[in-house]
Each structure stands twice: as C-alpha cells, then as structure tokens.
Amino acid sequence: MSTVVDDHLWSAIGDPTRRRMLDLLLAEGPGTATTLSAHLPVTRQAVTKHLVVLDRVGLVRSTPAGREKRYHVDEAQLARAVAQLNSVGALWNARLRRIKSLAEAIQQARNKSR
Amino acid sequence: MSTVVDDHLWSAIGDPTRRRMLDLLLAEGPGTATTLSAHLPVTRQAVTKHLVVLDRVGLVRSTPAGREKRYHVDEAQLARAVAQLNSVGALWNARLRRIKSLAEAIQQARNKSR
DNA sequence: CTTGATGTGCAACCGAACGTTGCAGAAGGT
DNA sequence: ACCTTCTGCAACGTTCGGTTGCACATCAAG
User: Fold this and answer.
1) Rounded to two decimals, what is the model's pTM?
2) Phi then psi for B46, rounded to 5 degrees?
3) Candidates B16, B79, B95; nearest CB to A11
4) What is the predicted pLDDT for the residue at A91?
5) I need a surface site. Which of A7, A19, A47, A91 has the fewest CB within 10 A?
6) Is the CB of A107 under 7 A from strand C?
7) Which domains does chain A have, with CATH numbers?
C-alpha cells in the first residue's frame, strides 16, 4: 500500500512562494503576475515563472483579459493536492502510532520480567 | 490569520527522495546512507546529502554504531511536520468550501431573477 | 494620433539545490 | 596483513528560484 503521490503536484506546493501565491489567489480571488507580486517579497518575473509551474501541474489556469493575464485556482486540482497532503499525513501518523505502541509493548515486557 | 508554517520543515519533506527516505526509515526501522540508497534510485552520496538536510531540520537523528552511522526518524518532529500538512490542508479546504458556497449563492440569486 | 503609463514576455546572469563520479580513509572479517 | 565494506570529501554538471534589463503590447489622455 505505498503512498500514491504525484511528485510534480507535491513539489509544486513544496515551494513557499508558490504556496503563498495559492493562498493569495484563494483569499483575494483571481489575479495577475503583477498584482500577486505586489503582495510577495519577489519580483513579477519570479512570480511569472512560478505561475508557469503551477499551470503546468494544473493547480492554476489563466484567462487573457485585455492586456493582462488573469490567473485563478483550479479548485478540483487543489482539492486533489489537499487529498495527497492528508493521505501522506495519515500514513505517517499511522506509522508513528504503530512505533509508539511497539515501544510500549516492549516496556510492558520489561516490567513483567523485572 | 496567515498559516504558521516552518518553511524549512516543509521544504525538507517537499523533496520526493527525502519523503521516500522517511517512509523507508519508518517502515524498516533505522538505517544508514548505504542501506537507504539500496532502496532508492539515487547514489549513496545523494542520500548522505539528504540526510544532512533532514538532520538540520530535526526530522532525523544519527547514532554512530561501529563503522557505520545509523539514522532514525525523530518522531516528535515528524509529528509536527504532519500537523503542518494537516493545518495547510484544512485551511485550503475551508477556502475551497467558502468559494463553492459563494458560487451556489450566486446560482440561487440567478434562479430567483429568472 | 501621439504620448505616456502600465502590463506582459524574453534573455542573460547568479547562487543554491540535487545529482553524479572519483578517490581517500577508517573499521570489520578472514 | 589483506581484502572487503562503509564513510567522507571534492569536483563537476544541471535544474531551480531569483534578479536585472530591455523590447513589445495595450489602455487612457492630451
């Protein structure tokens, strides 16, 4: 039952700047590279490159509007990403619980033989 | 109410190879750079570098054992990482739900005026 | 329509990250 | 003592995140 995780999707949200960009698009609605960069500590060009990455993995889509290119979050794809976060979190939690219960079992055995 | 996320911790588990290394250490218990690299598509040296990163953020700790250096997961720190995954997942889920309900409200208003 | 402001796109460049190969050295087994 | 095996260090190449600089498109006035 190995974890089914799309590495590209995960890596896309692994970058702090991209994560903040998604936050911004969710909180303030669709925006352009320029409007996003105003709320971020990086230049417009850096934001543009990140938007290309996000678009490539389908987390974001663009719609040309006049002279500007407006980006919005693809909700279905973001939901998939969230599902993967939860899935990995759940797996690791399960493993951690198992290790903890093993440790407790050993403790018990040790108490018995004391 | 911006998300409180440790970027270093998140970035550490953002790399696919490091995530698999953690998986391996959890599933098969403590191991060395050499044993880990046997289960991974990268060389021992690459694994060593990743172990340095994981050690730096406290996700893993090493105990010298003879000529080899055995690494094991720091469970408390991994639990923190999982908590951050859940936290971001929950935030995004909330925002997605809010957007969805907004969309439905608009639909309703449109139906009324039809 | 021309001018100026604003938004986008492309290219060159830099440092850090991820990966490789090659080699030196330390610790085991026989 | 020897050979195997594991670790550590250094050099190198490529990709990634970020910057600056400049050319080009579009809108709004004058």
Assistant:
1) 0.88
2) -60, -45
3) B16
4) 96
5) A7
6) no
7) 7-113 (1.10.10.10)
